[in-house]
Amino acid sequence: MIGSPEVKCGLCDATKGNIVFSSQKWRVVMVEDKHYPGFCRVIWNEHISEMTDLSDQDRNLIMQIVWKVEQVIRDIMGSHKINLASLGNMVPHVHWHIIPRYTDDPHFPNPIWSPLDIEESDVTEKLKLLPRLKLELETRLCNFDQSHS
Amino acid sequence: MIGSPEVKCGLCDATKGNIVFSSQKWRVVMVEDKHYPGFCRVIWNEHISEMTDLSDQDRNLIMQIVWKVEQVIRDIMGSHKINLASLGNMVPHVHWHIIPRYTDDPHFPNPIWSPLDIEESDVTEKLKLLPRLKLELETRLCNFDQSHS
């Protein structure tokens, strides 16, 4: 249930964050992370803990969105690698991190959760790409959503 | 190409590791991690960098294996949460980490790649479950493989 008062979970409020596209069952937000411009999250709207708690159909649906977002990030951001993760230890509500990695990002080649090696990295050029990323995500996710509803 | 001499990649050698089940296109290994008994990896045999480099069919196939492995780990290991990740920054060859998290594991609730809080955690009881995990993985993956080939 979206925003159900019974569930106290930061991800149950489907209005929070920099929302790129919102569908009935899922939404995509752009994450404001100073080291990782282009970082996006795909969030399942219903409060479900694990991927294997979803039906086959819904599991397939959310992964289709993850692949769409991964492809748009690759097309626009010039990332070196994509990292995908569904963790949810603090917030057990299904959500996927889609993280563009750059060879000069402050954790590369380690995971972004590892200790920080360098305090600042220069992401000026990447920040300029964000409006284009947002537009491309909106367009392609809207197209996907219309063709699957 | 499996074990192709042109590709120097640790994951291209499909004979390495504690293999639980090996199919034509993928394999599953159990990871020896003293803090995370039950940690498994699903490895795509071909040297492919990103999930969006796979065909729709192959991408769906590897995710079906990930869900199978997640379900078996949940059924056997009594984990509190499952973490899924496809990173590949050091080894750009598609592989999925399926990590059972325990409330008393040394990183919980942080990602396993974050700085270690406690040097040792008691996993004695979890280690006893590993033979059963291996048997259950072998059985269910074999059944899946036979029904999809």
Q: Note the total helix count of chain A.
A: 3
* Residue share in β-strands of chain A: 15-25%
| Helix/strand class of chain A | alpha+beta
Helix content of chain A: 25-40%
Arithmetic mean of pLDDT of chain A: 91
Oligomer: homodimer
- Report how far the terminal alpha carbons of chain A are from each other: 19 Å
Question: Strand order of the main beta sheet of chain A, please?
Answer: 1-2-3-5-4
- Uncertain regions spanning at least 5 consecutive residues of chain A: 1-5
Rounded Rg of chain A: 15 Å
Largest sheet of chain A: 5 strands, antiparallel
**Overall 3D geometry of chain A?**
globular
Q: Main interface pair?
A: A-B, 30 and 30 residues
Would you count the extended β strands of chain A for me? 5
String of helices and strands of chain A: EEEHEEHH
Layout of helices and strands:
The structure is a homodimer of 149-residue chains.
Chain A: E1 18-22, E2 26-30, E3 40-44, H1 56-77, E4 81-86, E5 95-101, H2 124-127, H3 130-147
Antiparallel strand pairs in A: 1-2, 2-3, 3-5, 4-5
Helix pairs in contact in A: 1-3
